[in-house]
Amino acid sequence: MSERHWRIALPVLVLLLVMALWQTLVQIWVIPPYVLPSPALVLSTLVSDAPLLLQSLGVTLITTFLGFLLAAIGGVTLAVAFHQWRPVGYAFYPYAVALQVTPIVAVAPLLLIYLPQQLAVLACAWIVAFFPVLANTTLGLNSVDHNLIALFELYKASRAQILLNLKLPAALPQILAGLRIAGGLSLIGAVVAEIAAGSAGAGSGLAYRIAESGYRLNIPRMFAALLLLSLAGIAIFFLLSAITQRVLGRWHESATPRER
Amino acid sequence: MNVATLDPSRTERPSAAAAAASRGALSISCRDIGVRFFTDRRSVTAIEGLSLDVEAGEFLTLLGPSGCGKSTALRVVAGLSEPSTGTVEWADGKHVRIGFVFQEPTLMPWADVAANVRLPLTIAHADEGKAHAAVAQALDRVGLSEFAGAYPRELSGGMKMRVSIARALVTEPRLLLMDEPFAALDEITRFKLNNDLLTLWRMLKRTVMFVTHSVFESVYLSQRIVVMTPRPGRVFTELTIDAPYPRDELFRTSVEYAVYCRMVSEALEKAMAGAAA
């Protein structure tokens, strides 16, 4: 088998082994499902509760996607604005950092007071996700080859031309790295806000299902919902990685195989 | 052979004079250029009192050790750096087209070869058809017509440098400024590119200002060598290399070449000794 096959086969093997061990232990020690459900029970719950769980997954994914989209647009736009007009950057960058380092779990309840629930959840997803886009885009814009900038100036390029034809394309690898982080974070932001909102008594996202199932001691459903969330996160990561690979394709070191 | 004192009559070579006549005299006078950089609380004098004339059509080399300000001098001529003192005077107005080749190929990795060469025309919003033809011609001149669709990372170091030269040529510049363009290349590639550069220079009859720290490269290429002192950079002496063109491998291995190299080496040594004293 080639290295590529091993890279797929080995993690699958680990998964199967852990599942088998889990299943065996639950059966040998006769652990009741409200303490620890077996993997088989989690899967059958996933199937039987599918309509409810998938609907909730849809709600969470829409929030995640919107949060991610706004974070991508907002992060890149803010980074460009901070970069093009230095005083704006000096004035606002510290507050972007402050927003980032304040734990979102602590902010969510406040947002839920001032904003309609749906909007509050979206705001949480955005707050968590936009900073890596901002920070990475800023790094990318500042790392452009000085000689290329000199070349553009030699040919009397305008500031807009330098931004559009040079700095943004040059920053693309960093922007995409920021987006990959933001994808996972916007899911986290949405989940945190849903749980905060769920305890306030409303909502239908997947995280709310987890909280609700917890109150009802429906542990298999908690595991099933958690599994779905985890799969959603993995899917987002792979989707964004595939997009990165596609966009950087032929030109960036990170996307091309190394000669050996 | 005492050429250390510059005899003005010797710089009037027929080829340079003819080129000047046919293209309208481009000549550049650097008068008493000084460049000072300010890094936190320290000021560094890169160049001081540098005066230099560049004749139309000539191949002029600035030779000096690292840190002698020769690159800075080139950037001042290009208008990329503002001199702290002194002026750069252009015989026929300021708006002469310039091509600049950096020490690194300085290509945009996300754009293919054609798009990289086309960059100066893209910035100037040049007409589509004309730009296409100009790019094709520039690539043909450096022998890379077949690689128009390749990406920089797919090319060798020498080929990347050729792309960089094609990009500098695409606007049909009157003046070509080259900042140690071949310093990072292996010797075989450097010799090949030296020869190709001389062929292009003879064909296109542009003025070339070349910067290098290699005595051998400067003698092989230039009509005139300006030897600079380090810290602060200023002109130590000028030397004329009167060997006829075309120059080829025969010249590179000739006694004449060796004599010129020794002469330039001695001048460079004196320049560095003078600076150290």
Fraction in beta strands of chain A: under 5%
Number of helices of chain B: 10
Strand order of the largest sheet of chain B: 5-6-7-3-8-9
Low-confidence stretches of chain B are: 1-23
| Range of helix content of chain A | over 70%
Mean pLDDT of chain B: 83
SS class of chain A: mainly alpha
Number of DSSP strand runs of chain B: 9
- The whole-angstrom Rg of chain B is 19 Å
| Cα Rg of chain A | 23 Å
Helix content bin of chain B = 40-55%
- In the CATH hierarchy, the architecture of one domain in chain B is 3-Layer(aba) Sandwich
Features:
heterodimer; A: 260 residues; mainly alpha; MetI-like fold; B: 277 residues; Rossmann fold; 10 helices; 9 strands; 40% helix
Explained architecture:
- The complex is a heterodimer of chains A (260) and B (277).
- By secondary structure, chain A is mostly helical.
- Chain A has 10 helices and no strands.
- Chain A has helices at 3-28, 39-48, 50-84, 86-101, 104-114, 117-142, 146-154, 159-199, 206-215, 219-248.
- In chain A, α5 (104-114) packs across α6.
- In chain A, 35% of the residues are buried.
- Chain B is an alpha/beta fold and 277 residues long.
- In chain B, the strands form 2 sheets. A 6-stranded mixed sheet of chain B has the order 5-6-7-3-8-9, sandwiched between helices. A 3-stranded antiparallel sheet of chain B has the order 2-1-4, covered by helices on one side.
- In chain B, a hairpin with a 2-residue loop joins β1 and β2 (42-54).
- In chain B, α5 (128-141) crosses α6 and α8 (215-221) crosses α10.
- Mean pLDDT of chain B is 83; it is low at 1-23.
- At the A-B interface, α7 and α8 of A face α4 of B.
